[in-house]
Predict the 3D structure of the following.
Amino acid sequence: MKDFFTQRLIPPCCSNPASSLLFGKGTTRFFAHKYSEKNRSNHFSFIKQTLFAISILLLTIGSPLANANTILDITGLGDTGQIIEADQAVAVAFTLTNTFTNVSVTADILCIACQGGVWLHQNSLGAGASFGDTLDAFAFASNTSTPFFSGFTLNPGLYFLILAIDSGSAVWSGSITPTIFEAPGIMDEFDFHSTNTQAFVPQSDFGIIFGEGTLHYTVEGDPMTGGGTMTPVPEPSTAEFFLLGMILVIGVFANKAKLVRSKR
């Protein structure tokens, strides 16, 4: 116990009998106390630095990538809409004049015990629709979440979001007097309805919906550099946060190791 007290608590200047005689027992205890306080202070400082570095890493792991800009948004009171029964389909269309990346498409749809499919298609609907123009499609049901599509790079052209119902029914919400936001490089087009869908849904006979309001949907994306007039707000990437966290962790432990060596 005496050796432990001497090595851990009493600084080198006071760890021998001569020092005790020179400074006196009270002075020795004073130095031991101050030295112990310094150890505790360094220990708590190390803990705080470590927790801060770990927090940065956890923030990096848990934080999503930067969100895209809203480039087209059709909203409103929801005082109208389109009911879609079995063997029917509804589509909204938008035109791009710029190239956008990280594109996602979301729509305000209520599924009532329905089964069907959602399509992201380009260029045309009807008999002239090509299989090669379908960008993506998936089964739609009551438990399907939105956004329907995400992560796409879309070049200038005409695009369609199509909902086809095989059984049950769905309601696509809309507004008689919608609030429409259109960023430079994108424009909302007509809404379409088909009462007799084909096996390849984009080839169904679609007609323009007149006098029943405008259906709600949202498109998000970022303009490709040099391809538009919008500039997304730059945000630190996940890799940058991770690198910062690793530098902090390494720095904290290097500082701790240096402190330990200085005490020997």
